[in-house]
Amino acid sequence: MRRPFPLVLLLALLLAACTTAPAPDAGADGPRWRPRPGTDWQWQLSGRLDTSVDVPVYDIDGFDHSRETVARLHRDGRKVICYLSTGAWEDFRPDAGDFPESVIGRGNGWEGERWLDVRRTDVLEPIMAERLDMCRDKGFDAVEPDNMDGYRNRTGFPLTARDQLVYNRLIARLAHERGLAVGLKNDLDQIPQLVGDFDFAVNEQCAQYGECARLTPFVEADKAVFHAEYELPTDRFCAESRRLGLSSLLKEYELGAWRRAC
Description:
By secondary structure, the protein is α/β, with parallel strands linked by helices. The protein has one domain: TIM Barrel (Alpha-Beta Barrel), CATH 3.20.20. Helix content is about 25%, strand content about 20%. It is built from seven helices and twelve strands. The strands form two sheets. It has a nine-stranded mixed β-sheet. Strands 4-6-5 form a three-stranded antiparallel β-sheet, with no helix packed on it. Strand 9, helix 6 and strand 10 (about 225-230) form a beta-alpha-beta unit. The chain is globular and about 45 Å long. The relative contact order is 0.14.
């Protein structure tokens, strides 16, 4: 038989529950990680992984790295983002044979990669769900889904902005269902519609093309913008990046270990 709960203790607990602030990462739909503006990061998708960079966030290839690598980064106090291509087929991935030829379109400019027909969610959803299962099972905190703006490119398919919105929201939902944060990659035109669906943004070359101010909806929503330039020296974009609250790096195109942070 339970003893009666002391009234004074009950009142104290109720008061604490009313006044204690929620954990920083907690939200209405779960305790997934939510990086804040200005969070420093390392982005490495090629070469031997250098785990010595003293930053709180690593963004690495989801296929190329093991659960043990993610765990080692966690032990060092890092959050780890799982890079995946969700909008393009890659002939070098172990699941390349799962994609029927009917959903594979034109090349996207990178060797071995071709755009996907994102209208075919009946085909792509189970494949992408398995990829996100992999990220979750390896212990990643978040996912960076790449090639999320096919509708603005010559894909070989008549993709519309609505097709892209439906697909991008599908990817965000699949990530969230697995407890993963998810970043919107590029796709600047649809930021106003998608900022509520994504937990952070990843951008390439907004400074080179004079577009960085278009990322401010993420910063205003207290969500990080992880940004990289390739061709501009840091003195051409870092001051503006700091003003806007972006997390900016100078990287080489192959995205090896080398970096120069703002």
